[in-house]
Amino acid sequence: MTATESTPSGQRRPDPTELDAPDPGRVDPVAGRVIADLGRSGHTIATAESLTGGRVCALLTTVPGSSSVVLGGVVSYSCELKVSVLGVSAAVLAEQGAVSADTALQMAQGVCRVTGASVGVATTGVAGPDPSEGKPVGTVFVAVAVGESWGRVRALTLHGSREQIRAQSVDSALDLVLEALAESGDTG
Question: Is residue 89 within 8 Å of residue 82, measured between CB atoms?
């Protein structure tokens, strides 16, 4: 069967070259800007995600050419992985919990150490449906680390469904990366 023939169900079978072609409608403009700014500045990025479950990394990699700056990501839902893989302090987790500013920043710093990326972005929070660690649904922290000397955490109080909170968290994380690159003077 050739690329222009129909399948038995009547649907056109795609040409193999179409499968690799980017769909411009699927590239998030903010993710595109993050990738462009990282490329101009010579930075690489890695993600450390809890409540977003890999969505930040997934969104970044929809951008054509992202492989030149995205090194990878760690999804660390459990506290054990936050400690053993990302190097989050067990004391911080015991005292402040997984949903805290210090945890988010240590996740961002840790993913830089693990991957060798110059920029780390992290998400941790409560997407629901129930509160966690005594913190209400919508409590979220996003953090960015740039090198050893620059780090920023943003505390968020988000509203909506579980999926809406996760989507807003991804957007906030990408916005914070753009701000971090601008403030650290690394947007080229």
Answer: no
The pLDDT value given to residue 27: 87
Give average pLDDT by consecutive 10-residue segment, the chain, 188 residues. Answer: 50 54 72 97 97 98 97 97 98 98 98 97 97 97 90 97 98 97 72
The answer to whether the beta carbons of residues 91 and 65 sit under 8 Å apart is no
And the tokens for 15? 């040409």
The helix-helix angle for 29-41 and 162-183 (nearest 10°) equals 30
Q: Which two tokens stand for residue 4?
A: 């222009």
Strand runs (DSSP E) across 63-161, as ranges? 70-75, 119-125, 139-146, 150-157
Closest CA to 136 of 156, 118, 154: 156
Going edge to edge, which strands form the sheet with 70-75? Answer: 70-75, 45-49, 119-125, 139-146, 150-157
CB 35 within 8 A of CB 66: yes
pTM over 0.70: yes
- What is the sign of the dihedral through the CA atoms of 35, 66, 17 and 7? negative
**Consecutive H or E run containing 162:** helix 162-183
- 48 φ, ψ to 5°? -125, 110
